[in-house]
Design goal:
Elements lengths: L2 H15 L4 E17 L2 E19 L2 E7 L5 H12 L24 H4 L3 H18 L4 E18 L4 E19 L1 E11 L6 H14 L9 E7 L1 H15 L2 H5 L18 E6 L20 E6 L2 E2 L6 H6 L8 E2 L15 E2 L3 E6 L4 H6 L3 E9 L10 E13 L2 E6 L2 E6 H4 L3 E4 L4 E4 L6 E4 L2 E9 L1
Parallel strand pairs: 7-14, 13-20
Antiparallel strand pairs: 1-2, 1-4, 2-3, 4-5, 5-6, 7-21, 8-9, 8-13, 9-10, 11-12, 14-15, 15-16, 15-17, 17-21, 18-21, 19-20
Helix pairs in contact: 4-5
């Protein structure tokens, strides 16, 4: 048995001796390194080991939470959790019981664990040089490489004992080119296994910046917009995903409230939350309460199927737990032992009949191809209304790339846009969330009737 499981079991026993009726201990450990790029050179190296313990107790039908950094501090954390529970409201909440789990492929790679600073530095340098090979005047303004492993254990007084571990490597670069005006480019990569191509990352970033030279202003009008995976992920993260959380739905704070079985999107797409996705950036054997990960259909061929729940929201609203408990700060993009569990999507996946990504453009008479959007976090998940800025976008005319566009605003209602899917690309990418721990495996989507304002 692992040291984390042993430690968690001891703390659970301590909690019961102190009078807790139920207790849960979550222990996590991360070990990672990161290299930061500024102005075509490595500017800093950071990283190390972080470990922490989150504790929940139930006493007199009231829930208390506290955390500490090591087992020897658990006693005072337990006292705090018990004290805080007195301030809460009574509920029917109870901790989950053990259940069967299924194996998930491609979540752990020993090669990432043995990766070292020399490997990462060589990869970082390769990204920079590959960009400069495209154009010597390219400036990599920011970016970097990170890699490492994370493990966690969940133990509770119901007999649940679960541990899991995973690895990840990521890289990103953003570039500026000042020749015929100023243009920008970027490229990102994330994976649970060591399959990174540093040369391709730098090259794609630079090619995008080069392609954006000689940008023009666009006429204001409503037209088809092709959202590439990174642009699409931003809208899904801040509009669609929050509207699928059971608590928001049952409180009438979602556009999907009371609409199970209705056509809410184009029949050409299916939207899934898959905590069991092989190689998924947010996949794990269990969620952060120890509940086995699941694949949950949210929208199937345009028809609304269901919503996402944790143990708490499932009990409160008499629904089935979908394994979507995550511990993260409100605007935190990774798991955090300092936060109690809340509902979050795991890996949002879009499926449908696909065409080659380049053919999406051929099918558009007049439209825009969007690579990046800013400001999606200001969107309204209850209504679906959005108004975002895109610094990297291109005009499409009669099925062909026409010219790069100066920064423009995109607006509309995203829930309505999903009813007007004109094409699904075959370019699925793993994409991590921006301000939340949500991840994605999504393609480019061609959506009709989006307002473009130059």
């Amino acid at each position: 048995m692992s040291s984390m499981i042993d430690s968690a079991k001891r703390i659970v026993e301590m909690a019961l001796k102190k009078g807790a009726e139920e207790a849960e201990v979550f222990i996590m450990k991360s070990d990672g390194r990161g290299f930061t790029i500024e102005k075509n050179s490595v500017s800093s190296i950071a990283g190390g080991i972080e470990k922490g313990i989150g504790i929940r107790i139930i006493k007199d039908k009231k829930l208390g939470f506290a955390y500490c950094t090591e087992e020897k501090k658990a006693d005072s954390a337990l006292e705090q959790a018990i004290s805080l529970s007195k301030l809460g409201n009574e509920s029917e909440f109870t901790l989950p019981e053990p259940d069967k789990i299924k194996k998930i492929e491609n979540l752990y790679d020993d090669r990432i664990v043995s990766y070292d600073d020399e490997d990462a530095l060589e990869g970082t340098t390769t990204m920079i040089n590959s960009a400069l090979e495209v154009d010597s005047e390219i400036v990599i303004t920011r970016g970097g490489v990170g890699y490492g492993s994370e493990s966690f254990a969940v133990v509770n007084s119901k007999g649940l004992e679960m541990e899991d571990a995973g690895t990840e490597i990521y890289a990103s670069v953003s570039a500026v080119l000042k020749k015929n005006g100023m243009s920008t480019g970027f490229e990102k990569f994330s994976s649970r296994t060591l399959d990174i191509d540093y040369h391709a990352i730098g090259r794609e970033c630079a090619n995008l910046a080069l392609k954006g030279q000689n940008a023009r202003k666009i006429e204001d009008k409503e037209m088809t917009v092709i959202f590439t995976p990174y642009a699409l992920a931003n809208l899904l993260e801040f509009i669609t995903a929050p509207a699928m959380y059971g608590e928001a739905v049952h409180k009438g704070e979602s556009v999907y409230t009371g609409r199970i079985g209705e056509q809410v999107a184009s029949e050409d797409i299916t939207i899934i939350d898959d905590g069991m996705l092989a190689g998924g950036l947010n996949s794990a054997l269990v969620d952060d309460e120890g509940v086995p990960s699941k694949r949950t259909e949210l929208i199937k061929k345009g028809i609304l199927q269901g919503f996402l729940y944790s143990q708490s929201s499932a009990i409160e609203f008499n629904e089935q737990n979908t394994g979507n408990a995550m511990r993260a700060e409100r605007f935190g993009s990774s798991r955090n032992y300092k936060s109690p569990p809340g509902v979050k999507a795991r890996n949002i996946v879009i499926e449908g009949k696909t065409v080659k990504a380049e053919n999406l453009i051929k099918e558009v008479d007049e439209g825009v191809l969007v690579y990046e959007i800013l400001g999606a976090h200001t969107s309204n998940p209850a209504s679906g209304d959005f108004s975002v800025t895109s610094p990297i976008l291109f005009k499409i005319e009669k099925g062909e790339f026409a010219y790069p566009i100066k920064s423009a605003m995109l607006s509309g209602n995203f829930h309505e846009c999903l009813k007007k899917v004109e094409g699904v690309g075959d370019d699925h990418k793993l994409v991590s969330g921006g301000l939340t721990p949500i991840s994605f495996y999504i393609p480019s989507l061609s959506l009709g009737k989006v307002r473009v304002t130059g």
